[in-house]
Amino acid sequence: MIKAGVREVRQRLSEYLRKVQEGEEVVITRRDEPMARIVPFARKQARSLASHRGLRERISTSGKPLSQIVIEQREERF
Q1: ∠ CA(20), CA(36), CA(41), 5° rounding?
Q2: Which residues, in sequence order, are CB contacts of 77 under 8 Å at separation 6+?
Q3: Which of 21, 28, 44, 78 lies 20 to 30 Å from 13, alpha-carbon distance?
Q4: Do 5 and 28 touch, CB atoms closer than 8 A?
């Protein structure tokens, strides 16, 4: 946790925001009394591809592949 006064945070905001982005917490003080806190957002955990397996299994494909449709559309233009 980093403590900094209002004036210092105002002058070096980009630096403090960078530290917050890296996971630090910044407490902003006025006359050594805490008045605000800047904390990073909780990042969403990326789901593994295995968690999407059920969705992929439920999707059924029918008809021509998209690549074939595109080729045919291009040939019709010329």
Answers
A1: 35
A2: none
A3: 44
A4: yes
Find the Cα–Cα–Cα–Cα dihedral 58, 60, 65, 69, rounded to 10°: -110
User: Which of the four pLDDT bands, split at 50, 70 and 90, describes residue 30?
Assistant: very high
Which two tokens mark 62?
């029918």
Q: Of 27, 20, 24, 23, which is closest to residue 4 (Cα–Cα)?
A: 27
How many angstroms separate the CA atoms of 71 and 30, rounded? Answer: 67
2 — phi, psi (to 5°)? -110, 135
Contacts (Cβ under 8 Å, ≥6 apart) of 4: 12, 16, 26, 27, 28, 29
- pLDDT tens digits, residue range 33-70? 999 999 998 776 666 767 777 777 888 788 888 899 99
Q: How many CA atoms lie within 13 A of 3 on its CB side?
A: 7
